[in-house]
Amino acid sequence: MKTGLLFSFWMLWATVAVAQVLPTYHLNIGDPAPAIKVKHWIKGTPVTAFEKEKIYVIDFWATWCVPCKVTMPHTSKLAEKYKDKATFLAIDVYEKEDVPIADIKKLVDTMGDKMNFHVGIEEGKFMSKNWLDTSGTYGIPTIFIVNDGRLDWIGHPKYLDSVLTKILNKTWSPELARIKLTDQRYLRQLNSVSIAEFLRRTDRVEVDIPGNTYKQVRTTPDSILMILDEMVKHIPTLKYYGNFASFRFSALLETDQQRAIDFAREVLAYEREDPSYLTFAALIEEEFDKLDIQQEIYRFGAACYQAWIDENPYPEYGNVPVKYKKMALMYRRAGDIEKAEEADRKAAGELL
Predict the structure, then answer these.
(1) Which of 1, 89, 263, 280 is least surrounded, with the fewest CB atoms within 10 Å of its CB?
(2) Per-residue confidence at 202, pLDDT binned at 50, 70, 90?
(3) H helices within the chain, ranges in order?
(4) Rounded mean pLDDT of the chain?
(5) What does the buried/exposed string (b/e) look like for 226-238 if buried means 16 or more CB atoms within 10 Å of the residue's CB?
(6) H-helix or E-strand containing 155?
(7) Model pTM?
(8) Strand partners for 155
(9) Domains of the chain listed by start with CATH number
(10) What average pLDDT score do residues 303-317 get?
């Protein structure tokens, strides 16, 4: 009875909280594309409107955004590859107010062929608000693809080649992409508002009155797993998302390490985009000196680093040598000395 009441309380709390916190997104895949408002074009031919039956790739960036500049050369290669099939634009947004146009132009000129497409600076905050903010995509770099005046895709530049190929081959489904994006938005926000309730139920403070001391006591891993099961009962896919996945994996590392690996693989298979390779590797590293970790767990951690490296289209970004060093440590703890030494050589650039 007590468990049932707790769960009923959780469902009521979650329903109210999500209704209060979950924002309304006014822009989604399949919607008409907002207008282009650029105050200054610093490279290429000005684009003032989207023509019918044409495809536009819009890369939102800023001079302070290191990942933006790292991804630009790859996007530039795609612009050359698809120059007869799509128009590529880079629009400067979220820029610091004190950055003069001359400095932005100087950076673009320095990039040269690594930023070889139309480049403009947004007018006011129009494109920031009407593209990124209203779609719930606050971070950059972010790509929007406009096809025949409508949005076909919103995502990270590293997936651009794959998505654009499908659009050009007419195998892309904007309808399915819209459903997926809507689902991601909901899960992301539900994950965000749920974490406070999860922590409330798993942390408690004990007070030693005579000594006037306080200590925080963490719920046992088995209890954490039970609470997580309750919280995702009506939305099962939530267990694969964000904090829910991290807390479950950590609890399983303490209770059943084979189940931990099996669950992590479920999560990676579910995510498809932006797999949590580095998250799982980091969670394993946190337990290096706390748990008796099986060799298979270390091998899984090393495999996570390798998968991240293999799927990263920007080898100059993300400090790949450090990832190889951490991979070597995982292999060493697993007893795979030969693989550890190979990873060390890659970290030093000897085998790259």
Answers:
(1) 1
(2) confident
(3) 2-21, 66-81, 101-111, 126-127, 160-168, 174-202, 221-231, 242-255, 257-271, 277-286, 295-311, 320-334, 337-347
(4) 87
(5) ebbebbbeeeeeb
(6) strand 150-155
(7) 0.76
(8) 143
(9) 38-172 (3.40.30.10), 189-347 (1.25.40)
(10) 86
Q: How confident is the model at residue 204, as a pLDDT? A: 55
The answer to whether 43 and 119 have CB atoms below 8 angstroms apart is yes
Tell the residue number behind the tokens 């996570």, with chain if given. 304
pLDDT average, residue stretch 1-20? 42
Residue 332 has pLDDT above 50, yes or no: yes
The two tokens of residue 288 are 């290096």
3-state secondary structure of 213: strand
Q: Which two tokens stand for residue 156?
A: 């990270």
**pLDDT at position 26:** 82
Report d(CA 316, CA 265) in Å as an integer: 27
Question: Residue 190: how many CB atoms within 10 A of its CB?
Answer: 22
For 283, how many CA atoms within 13 A lie in the half-sphere containing its CB? 24
Q: Which residues of 59-88 are buried (b: 16+ CB within 10 A; e: fewer)?
A: bbbbbebebbbbbbbbbbebbeebeeebbb
Given the DSSP bridges, would you call strands 150-155 and 203-208 parallel, antiparallel or unpaired?
Answer: unpaired
Burial classification of residue 144, based on how many CB atoms lie within 10 Å of its CB (0-12 exposed, 13-18 middle, 19 or more buried): buried
User: Phi and psi (nearest 5°) for 72?
Assistant: -55, -45
pLDDT in the model for residue 200: 78
Measured CA to CA, the distance from residue 91 to residue 140 in angstroms comes to: 11
Full DSSP string of 253-303: HHH-HHHHHHHHHHHHHHH-SS--HHHHHHHHHHTTTTS---HHHHHHHHH
Q: Would you say residue 16 has pLDDT above 90?
A: no
Q: Alpha-carbon distance 349 to 343, whole Å?
A: 10
Tell me the angle at which helices 320-334 and 337-347 cross, rounded to the nearest 10 degrees. Answer: 170
Residue 210's pLDDT band, with cuts at 50, 70 and 90, is: low
- Quote the tokens at residue 73: 């050369």
Mean pLDDT throughout 291-298? 94
Tell me how far apart the alpha carbons of residues 193 and 220 are, in angstroms, rounded to a whole number: 23
Higher per-residue confidence, 310 vs 138? 310
